[in-house]
Amino acid sequence: MDPQNPSPLKTHLVSSTESSEFTHLTSSLTRSTIIALDAEWKPLRSHHPTYPTVSLLQLACQLGHELDSVVVFLLDLASLPLPSIWELLRDAFVSPDVLKLGFRFKQDLIYLSSTFSSMGCDSGFDRVEPYLDITSIYQHLLQKPPGKKAPKETKSLATICKELLGISLSKELQCSDWSCRPLTEEQKTYAAMDAHCLLEIFNVFREKVIKEGILVYSSSEHHPPIVNLGLKQVLLEKFDICNKVVRMKFREAVDMVQATDVSNDISAVEGTTIVTQPRNTQPMDEFLLKVASKYGEKILLGESDKKPKATKRKGKRRSSVGYKHGQYDDDWKGPAPWDLTVGGDGHPKFLCDVMVEGLAKHLRCVGIDAASPYSKKPESRELIDHANREKRVLLTRDAKLLRYEYLIINQIYRVKSLLKNEQLLEVIETFQLKVSEDQLMSRCTRCNGRFIQKPLSTEEAVEAAKGFQRIPNCLFDKNLQFWQCMDCNQLYWEGTQYHNAVQKFIDVCKLNE
Question: Per the CB 3.0–4.6 Å rule, which of 1, 74, 160, 475 could disulfide with 492?
Answer without folding.
Answer: 1
